[in-house]
Write a structure and sequence with these properties.
Blueprint: E1 7-12, H1 18-30, E2 34-39, H2 49-56, H3 67-72, H4 75-80, E3 84-90, H5 92-100, H6 106-113, E4 118-122, H7 126-130, H8 132-143, E5 147-148, E6 152-155, E7 161-165, H9 169-180, E8 190-195, E9 200-203, E10 206-208, H10 215-226, E11 230-235, E12 247-250, H11 254-264, E13 269-272, E14 279-281, E15 301-303, H12 307-312, E16 321-328, H13 332-343, E17 347-352, E18 364-365, E19 367-371, E20 374-377, E21 381-382, H14 383-397
Parallel strand pairs: 1-2, 1-3, 3-4, 4-5, 8-11, 8-13, 11-12, 13-16, 16-17
Antiparallel strand pairs: 6-7, 9-10, 14-15, 17-19, 18-21, 19-20
This protein binds cytidine-5'-triphosphate.
Cytidine-5'-triphosphate binds near residues 275, 304, 306 and 324.
């Protein structure tokens, strides 16, 4: 069940089924979710905020105009800081308020303010459920994209029988899991992406670098996350923001990048798009190099580790699919074929980085996919589109459903 690390905001409204919501909290937490509760005033007739807090291990929220609550975690933050909002039980009254866009207490205000997916588990008397007003509200909510689980049919608290009983906690957990399960061609895969240049220090204030902007690597990280993967992006110094939904680790030098990649393993796919500096300065000192009349400083260079080759050549803990990039200024395909063999990776994405083409720092890219299967040339595309197509291809190569 895909609830590990997920944050669920559970809104409990006033119905007898509220007692089952305490069990729901326990079930959600058993599956690794963090749960925070909002109780309506009706819910507090059935269960106490203390019981909810004891089970969630978090503060329970009840009032819209609570001074302490607003200073601590305001209602807008409550509406944002989660992955899913579950309303269980959802009473006829709360459904009506949601359908009408009312916001007259904390629960309804948060439900109006949130842009998160919402799952409701209605619970009410059978006649209230079947009433045209409730059915109308249900249709409105579904039209608004609200997800619904239940209600079930069965004996009700008032010795009546019919639909209106809240779904069992496990059914609600399953519905939540389905909503939060990553979908896409890379669902369930861990992808490591390297991106950007590396900076190799000359002294504490100077460094050797290259023109890589990180745009292509970052676009790949974003596309992989969108395709459902858990992504670790290991980025050299770039001016790009960290992509949302991606774990980004920032490094400076090639050696730091290799160390970060090693730590991020194991992975299903490694995509090494970084323009790693091939050399670093061996004779760096702790102090800034000072100008001396006429005498030029001598830099002695030493080779950096080849991150792609190091990881690709491993027999243990090697991601089953290793993708390298080849930045070339001439004989692009020929050099890419040589790199494929030399580095031991499974696929090389080759591109021409001659200054006149403007790939480095630019928005578009013309790439050739070079693998044992042959060479495939893609038309010039935006870096975002190259990333999307590449991720789709890798999904197909690793057997993911698209
Ligand atoms: N690469 C790496 N570590 C290095 C050098 C390169 O991981 N120290 C990776 C890059 O991320 C890329 C691939 O190797 O995926 C090829 O990089 P490129 O700069 O094109 O090739 P080099 O091996 O540096 O060869 P050359 O500079 O001679 O073209």
């Amino acid at each position: 069940m895909a609830l590990q690390g997920k944050r669920i905001l559970l809104v409990i409204s006033g119905g007898i089924a509220a007692y089952k919501s305490l069990d729901l909290i326990r079930r959600l937490r058993e599956r690794g979710a963090t749960v925070r509760c909002i109780l309506t005033s009706g819910a507090q007739q059935f269960i106490t905020p203390l019981a909810a807090s004891a089970l969630t291990g978090q503060r329970t929220h009840t009032d819209l105009f609570d001074r302490e609550d607003e200073a601590d975690i305001g209602h807008i933050k409550l509406a944002r800081d989660a992955d899913l909002v579950v309303v269980a039980p959802a009473t006829a009254n709360l459904m009506a308020k949601m359908a009408g866009g009312q916001a007259d207490d904390l629960a309804s205000t948060v439900l109006l303010a949130t842009t998160l997916p919402i799952l409701i588990a209605p619970a009410m008397n059978v006649r209230m459920w079947l009433h045209p007003a409730t059915q109308r509200n249900l249709a409105v909510l579904q039209g608004d994209g609200v997800h619904v689980v239940g209600p079930n049919e069965g004996a009700m608290a008032e010795a009546e029988f019919g639909p209106g009983r809240m779904s069992e906690p496990l059914e609600i957990v399953e519905a939540a899991g389905r909503l939060l399960a990553p979908a896409g061609p890379l669902a369930g895969k861990h992808v490591i992406v390297t991106s950007g240049p590396t900076h190799e220090p000359i002294d504490p204030v100077r460094y050797i670098a290259n023109r890589s902007s990180g745009k292509q690597g970052h676009a790949i990280a974003k596309a992989a996350a969108k395709a459902g993967a858990r992504v670790t992006l290991i980025s050299g110094p770039v001016t790009l923001p960290d992509p949302a939904g991606v774990t980004t680790l920032r490094v400076e030098s090639a050696r730091e990048m290799l160390e970060a990649v090693e730590k991020a393993l194991p992975a299903d796919i490694g995509i090494f798009a970084a323009a790693v500096a091939d050399w670093r300065v061996a004779n760096t000192g702790g102090q800034k190099i000072k100008k001396k009349d006429g005498a030029l400083p001598e830099l002695s260079l030493t080779e950096n580790p080849d991150i792609l080759a190091t990881i690709s050549r491993r027999t243990e803990n090697r991601p089953p699919l290793m993708v390298g990039f080849a930045a070339e200024t001439e004989h692009v395909i020929e050099h890419a074929k040589q790199k494929l063999a030399k580095k031991g990776c499974d696929l090389i994405v080759a591109n021409d980085v001659s200054a006149e083409i403007g790939v480095m720092g630019g928005e578009s890219n013309t790439v050739h996919l070079v693998s044992a299967a042959g060479v495939e040339t893609w038309p010039t595309l935006s870096k975002t589109e190259v990333a999307r197509k590449l991720v789709e291809r890798l999904g197909a190569m690793t057997g993911g459903a698209s």
